[in-house]
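To: structure desk
From: M.T.
Subject: fold request, one chain
Message: Could you run this one when you get a chance? Sequence is below, nothing fancy, just the single chain.
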Amino acid sequence: MPELPEVEVTRRGLLPHLPGKTVAGVFWSGKRLRTVMPRALLRDEIQGRTIRTVDRRAKYLLIRMAGGAVLVLHLGMTGRLGIFPVQTPVARHDHLRLRLDDGMELRFNDSRRFGSVAVWPAARADACEQEFAGRQGIEPLGDHFHAENLIRLARNRRMPVKTFLMDSRIVAGIGNIYANEILFAARLSPWTAAGTLDFQQWQAIACNGREILLRAIEAGGSTIADFIGSSGQPGYFQLQLAVYGRKGEKCPRCQAGINKKILAGRATFFCPVCQQE
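Reply: Done. Structure tokens follow.
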């Protein structure tokens, strides 16, 4: 599943192409994604409107239109966005196409159809965004992702720290890949109860988390399976992964064998020596 870096890479890839362009037409495949395609709202609020900018919140892309409407996209597990000349043959899993006034199309392709498309109408966009923001946790690249705030959020919580970091209601955008990498860098066991960590440990999470996410963005994200950025190029951060997907390989710090266990239903990779509880 695309995580925060992959979504941010996609946003940055779209920025040179979308702002200032008008959506001349909207086309859909007729197939349902995770939610029903909002066809009427796409026609009434997006078609004929000019794109102002592209923002990101957690793992969501927010395409803001002149006039106030917002197109909200979630890539799900296999979703990807790309810009194509209008004459390019439509791919099998292209479920949404926005035809632009420069002869190009923004296409949302999603083979497993776990992604979603929503529209916040101009008249209610502010209220919709406030409600949406209230369901999201703090941004790992934002000003609130620091030790003092993390200690406050974790107070009296018994959940494992890995589960804490992956809970989008607490921290927005960190998925399984980067939770594994952040905890390895911070030398913390994924099973440690979040409420027991001290200031220095949360500081290690905050500093390493920010560094790892920024390095992943610069590398174009991690192409573990299906992620391809809006440029059509895969990400290469998987070549820098220290523990994720490396069961049985040597720890890059101590040379012990990397272990794999299941935590809260997710594959968890860790060094049993560097990350003792």
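Reply (cont.): The mean pLDDT is 90. Let me know if you need anything else for the meeting.
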